[in-house]
């Protein structure tokens, strides 16, 4: 009996603009070119939306407090974000990508996955498609993009960061194992500081080390996430590119090395709020609802949520709302927890939020559209 043919590997591209907001500002204002540019409002509550590569050399990074950025780089030029302009450029980028494939999955204003397994542009390879897209972006927008080409989304995302800025990296199917083996386990999505510590305690420092653990051992140690680790260590990611899938929710969570009481969770909640804020910043949509998730030592899962009158306008405000939800848990004080998570839900298009009069109030009385910052 003939076996069905093995399906050909997908050809996935991850396109990621280089320092997008800052690069748009430098393109449009020649006086900013070659200077350290920080896209942020000034003020105690403001965070950096983007930093030019000149500013990054001083240690300035997206999502850090603007005051810290100013201390690190006193000569930086602070430019308030202009989201309407960035969104207009993003529409140009989308049209360039759609000329090559209908399967474009935007992750934010400045990055997207493309499935070019059957490219409509007739180019001979995914590598050629990525090169063409980057050239067209440079020609039509005077901006640069980096790209990763691989058999799946997980690998393409890693590859796009490999030769930044203005670079390209290809991981062919035959190269996957060799490429992944020496990578630190922290490069796997979802492996944060606590998970890295737990893996290191098992003698797992690299993806190659992780690959040596059988599936059942990983499941026993990490539950359902153990199965995900098993797949990622082998370069397996079967998620398709899904065009036009609006973000509904984002969240971050951590499982503790040892169970903790509710009163001891504040540092973790603040750190997770930061992770969630940065993840939410990768979409142009606006979240309305804050969610706190807890798992007790007995594996009981609890969620508490709150929808404030106005969306949280900063990482600090998100953390404060998440911390306030602890008071609604309603379990005895001596209850211990093995996991905590902070999420944002109820996303809406920014235009819809503006139509309903939902405006953030940036520092110093300025106003802008109701966007969460997109960190690039």
Word description of this protein:
The chain folds into three domains: 7-180, Reverse transcriptase/Diguanylate cyclase domain (Alpha-Beta Plaits), CATH 3.30.70; 181-233, 5' to 3' exonuclease, C-terminal subdomain (DNA polymerase, domain 1, Orthogonal Bundle), CATH 1.10.150; 249-365, Dna Ligase, domain 1, CATH 3.30.1490.100. The longest helix has 16 residues, at 83-98. The strands form three sheets. It has a five-stranded mixed sheet. It has 376 residues and is α+β, with helices and mostly antiparallel strands. It has 14 helices and twelve strands. The protein is globular. Helix 4 (83-98) runs antiparallel to helix 5 (126-141), helix 10 packs across helix 11 (224-233) and helix 12 (266-280) crosses helix 13.
Keywords, separated by commas or semicolons:
376 residues; alpha+beta; DNA polymerase, domain 1; Dna Ligase, domain 1; 3 domains; 19% strand
CATH class of the largest domain: Alpha Beta
Fourth-level CATH superfamily of the largest domain: Reverse transcriptase/Diguanylate cyclase domain
Largest sheet: 5 strands, mixed
Radius of gyration: 22 Å
Q: What's the CATH topology label of the largest domain?
A: Alpha-Beta Plaits
Number of strands: 12
Give the second-level CATH assignment, the architecture of the largest domain: 2-Layer Sandwich
Specify the structural class: alpha+beta
Entry summary:
The protein has 376 residues and is of the alpha+beta class.
SSE arrangement:
Blueprint: E1 12-17, H1 20-28, E2 37-39, E3 50-51, H2 53-56, H3 66-72, E4 77-79, H4 83-98, E5 104-108, E6 111-115, H5 126-141, E7 145-150, H6 153-160, E8 168-170, H7 176-180, H8 193-201, H9 207-211, H10 215-222, H11 224-233, E9 249-261, H12 266-280, E10 289-296, E11 301-306, H13 315-324, E12 336-345, H14 350-355
Parallel strand pairs: 2-4, 7-8
Antiparallel strand pairs: 1-6, 1-7, 2-3, 5-6, 9-12, 10-11, 10-12
